[in-house]
Amino acid sequence: MLPEPAPADPIRLDYALTHDDLRDGVAAQQRRGWVRWLVPILAVAVLAAVVTGLVSAEVWELPADAVAIVVGVVLVLAAIIGGVAVLLVRLALAAMYHWQAHLLVRGNPWLSQPVQATVTDTGIHLRSATEDAAIAWSHHPFYIETDRSFVLLASKGLGAMSVVLPKSGLVEADPSQLRAMLATHVRERP
Predict the structure, then answer these.
(1) Helical H segments across 31-174, by residue range
(2) Hey, which residues does 157 pair with through a beta bridge?
(3) Percentage of the chain modeled with pLDDT above 90
(4) 38-53 mean pLDDT
(5) Nearest CA-CA partner of 118 in 158, 161, 165
(6) Please, what is the average pLDDT of the chain?
(7) Cβ(38)–Cβ(137) under 8 Å?
(8) Which residues contact 177 (CB under 8 A, 6 or more apart)?
(9) What pLDDT score was predicted for residue 55?
(10) What is the rounded CA–CA span in Å between residue 150 and residue 59?
(11) One-character DSSP codes across 78-117
(12) Does the predicted model carry a pTM greater than 0.70?
């Protein structure tokens, strides 16, 4: 019989969620990999539209040098349009996350109260002036790590319940200890 691993030391966090912490949690939860495919898709769409226009206008009877220049210009334009589109999408998403975090704080003022969180092998215990909750690992089986926090998720879907643990709240531990604890009990969402 294999010996049971020794229980990990509890990790304590003391924090008050800020607007930025909540925005980070909302953004992490809604983050998807589709944005990285946006530029190639837009570039192909623009290139296809230009080629279709050239074919229908019977412009293909250009000298070889002119065709190379036209294709080069089309590729540069496709890259510029794709870059601008990605920038606009990111700006729109940032504004949406800011608005959602604002609504969360406005509708739940207790979210900004000081919280003491204790992370153990059995789950997370959250304590504030008005709340005292124990969350089992099975209730939040996924997590996402961002630059400023760890976001625990109840499911992979959009709108899932989440718990934001800001890295700035770590009292005596460093993020690697919390990361190791999370990796032991929950899965990182891709």
Answers:
(1) 38-56, 64-107
(2) none
(3) 10
(4) 70
(5) 165
(6) 78
(7) no
(8) 11
(9) 60
(10) 56
(11) HHHHHHHHHHHHHHHHHHHHHHHHHHHHHH-GGGGSEEEE
(12) no
The tokens for 64 are 């070889």
| Type of residue numbered 127 | R
Give the model's pLDDT for residue 64: 60
- The whole-angstrom separation of Cα 157 and Cα 128 is 28
Q: Which residues contact 150 (CB under 8 A, 6 or more apart)?
A: 143, 144, 164, 165, 167, 175, 178, 179, 182
pLDDT digits (tens, 9 = 90+) for 119-153: 998 999 999 888 888 999 999 899 988 888 998 88
Give the pair of three-digit tokens for residue 4.
């049971």
**How distant, in Å, are the alpha carbons of 40, 88, 98 from that of 94?**
22, 10, 6
Closest by Cα among 110, 109, 124 to 163: 124
Order across the sheet with 142-145: list the strands: 162-166, 149-153, 142-145, 187-188
Type of residue found at 77: L
pLDDT, residue 1, reads 52
